[in-house]
């Protein structure tokens, strides 16, 4: 099976712009989660989508949004970019195994905001 | 608030020795705990999952323990190799949601 793919891998934007990141989960996985990773804060949960519905949400401002399509592919959008949004954005897909879940992460999109 | 602490400093260990990484948590009652490995510039890779009613789990050279009384998990790599050098993350979860709470990770460096 192909792994989780994310596009683009690298992105440079300026403050005030908006950005859309894309994630394709492993085939058959219906849950997609997004995380932000920075050196200071580590991995922080943004939100999770399951069957096109947002199932969980982290503590990020409304500038961060996402959606999931019927084929389970997901996008996240960040509007009005700030310097502090520079980070590695990771997407993870999961397949339910009993009551616990294993996350399969993509390689990430490295976003630099200037 | 929930807090997860891992060895904040890098852990340097000689090849062949056992590396032990610590994950402590407060204000949380996880149903399960996971360990991930992350290499520079790449996403985390799942290693092991241990449930709250399990004390120990093993997979090849890896062993994880989970003490819900101490609120601590220990992650051991026996006969460590330079290829084991990476950052190791612990993550706590509850229920069926995919929302995981991650620690900040411990960087392990295995030298010859």
Structural class category of chain A: mainly beta
The most extensive interface between chains reads:
A-B, 29 and 26 residues
Cα distance spanning the termini of chain A? 37 Å
* Total number of helices of chain A: 0
Please tally the β strands of chain A and state the result: 11
Taking all Cα atoms into account, the compactness measure Rg of chain A is 13 Å
Per DSSP, the total helix count of chain B is: 0
Q: What oligomeric state do the depicted chains represent? A: heterodimer
Low-confidence stretches of chain A: none
What Rg of chain B, in angstroms, do the CA atoms define? 13 Å
- Portion of residues within helices of chain A: under 10%
- Summing up helix and strand content along with how strands pair, one would put the structural category of chain B as mainly beta
End-to-end CA span of chain B: 41 Å
What is the general shape of chain A?
globular
């Amino acid at each position: 099976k192909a792994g989780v793919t994310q596009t683009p891998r690298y992105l440079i934007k300026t403050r005030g712009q908006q950005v859309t990141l894309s994630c394709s989960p492993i085939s058959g996985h219906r849950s997609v989660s997004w995380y932000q990773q920075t050196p200071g804060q580590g991995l922080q949960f943004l939100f999770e989508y399951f069957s096109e519905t947002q199932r969980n949400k982290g503590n990020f401002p409304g500038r961060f949004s996402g959606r999931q399509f019927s084929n389970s592919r997901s996008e996240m959008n960040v509007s009005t970019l700030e310097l502090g949004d520079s980070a590695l954005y990771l997407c993870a897909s999961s397949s339910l195994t009993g009551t616990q879940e294993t996350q399969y992460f993509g390689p990430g999109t490295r976003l630099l905001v200037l | 608030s929930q807090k997860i602490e891992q060895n904040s400093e890098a852990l340097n260990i000689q090849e062949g020795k056992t590396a032990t990484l610590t994950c402590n948590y407060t204000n949380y009652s996880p149903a399960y705990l996971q360990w991930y490995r992350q290499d520079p510039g790449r996403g985390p890779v799942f290693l092991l999952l241990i449930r709250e009613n399990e004390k120990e789990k093993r997979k090849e050279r890896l062993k994880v323990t989970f003490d819900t009384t101490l609120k601590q998990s220990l992650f051991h790599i026996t006969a460590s190799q330079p290829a084991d050098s990476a950052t190791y993350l612990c993550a706590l979860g509850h229920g069926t949601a995919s929302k995981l709470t991650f620690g900040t990770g411990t960087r392990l460096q295995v030298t010859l």
